[in-house]
Design a protein that fits this description.
The chain is built from eleven helices and 14 strands. The chain has 308 residues and is α+β, with helices and mostly antiparallel strands. Strand 13 and strand 14 form a beta hairpin.
Length: 308
């Protein structure tokens, strides 16, 4: 982080001991637990609670996995990066071409900025005294759930945090202070209000906040137009699967002539256009331009089938 320039200058002007002292991570010449949570490299067996579980499920319950990772035991910064990487890999991302722009604009079902803020909040305010608990992120066809051990502090309500009225009620003030110094969290407790704003600005439903049984959960529900069941790609022909896989794996749009060159079998231009038309009807691909200038591109990134 020092090399990347993420550290405040008043902190990095000194050795490791100076940095830890400046961040209040040393007490009586001993490194405190918050330092391990923030910058630790080894967590087992002493810090099993510094963990994250990531999973993606088919449908709207936990019956069938699409993707999952073994429990991660890392510091806050690593867990944040791993969580966002997993989410980007496992959510469907639509795309559109805006007027005057050459590149496609990706449209996730939930703003990545809102998800990142929710993950940071969970990592910052979870109850690290609960050694057997872990943070969990579950992705379904219609929603993303982020949950962690440690409900709201006594006397704090969901209505209050939605209004940003409880900045002084922090379970882990030292961790929150360090993340604030690095620009990861809002000093005045506006994280939840910003999450709600980001979702509303994107036309998404307001997230649900649940405080129950010593657990705090945030549920991001996808907009209704993006909650239909995943397209059953097994109904596609082998050729259609190959065409879609080609467009899905590339960031550029292709003319029909370029697609013809990349297919394993030789087919006519009319046959290819017919196949492209079928894929477009299913909402898997789209096109721009007219006649000989028509270009084709994929509009989704994740489906319930591994295309080969």
């Amino acid at each position: 982080m020092v090399a990347s320039g993420d550290w405040p200058k008043d902190i990095v002007e000194g050795g490791t001991n100076h940095i830890l002292q400046k961040l209040r991570l040393i007490k009586k010449n001993r490194i405190i637990n918050a330092a391990v949570v923030l910058f630790g490299k080894e967590f087992l067996p002493d810090y099993p609670q510094c963990s994250l579980r990531l999973a993606s499920f088919k449908g709207i319950d936990k019956t069938e996995f699409l993707d999952k990772m073994p429990p991660l035991h890392e510091n806050i910064f690593v867990l944040l990066n791993e969580a966002m990487t997993f989410i980007r890999k496992n959510v469907r991302v639509a795309a559109r071409i805006e007027d005057g722009q050459l590149e496609r604009k990706e449209i996730p079902p939930v703003p990545f900025k809102a998800l990142r803020e929710a993950i940071i909040n969970a990592l910052t305010h979870r109850d690290y005294a609960y050694r057997r608990g872990d943070m969990q992120i579950a992705i379904f066809d219609d929603r993303i759930e982020i949950s962690n051990k440690g409900g709201l502090p006594p006397g704090v309500s969901i209505e209050q945090i939605k209004k940003g009225e409880v900045a002084h009620e922090r379970r882990n003030p030292i961790i929150a202070n360090v993340l604030n110094r690095f620009g990861y969290v809002e000093q005045w407790g506006r994280g939840i209000t910003q999450i709600i704003k980001n979702c509303k600005d994107a036309g998404d439903p307001e997230p649900e906040f649940i405080n129950k049984n010593n657990e705090f959960k945030v549920i991001f529900r996808f907009p209704s137009e993006r909650t239909q069941a995943s397209t059953d790609l097994t109904s596609l022909t082998t050729r259609q699967q190959e065409i879609f896989a080609l467009l899905l794996s590339e960031h550029n749009a292709f003319k029909t002539s370029s697609i013809l060159e990349k297919l394993s079998d030789t087919i006519s231009g009319n046959t290819l256009r017919r196949e492209l038309g079928e894929l477009k009807k299913l909402g898997l691909i789209d096109s721009r331009g007219k006649a000989q200038k028509t270009e084709w591109f994929a509009v989704a990134r994740k489906f319930n089938l591994n295309l080969k």
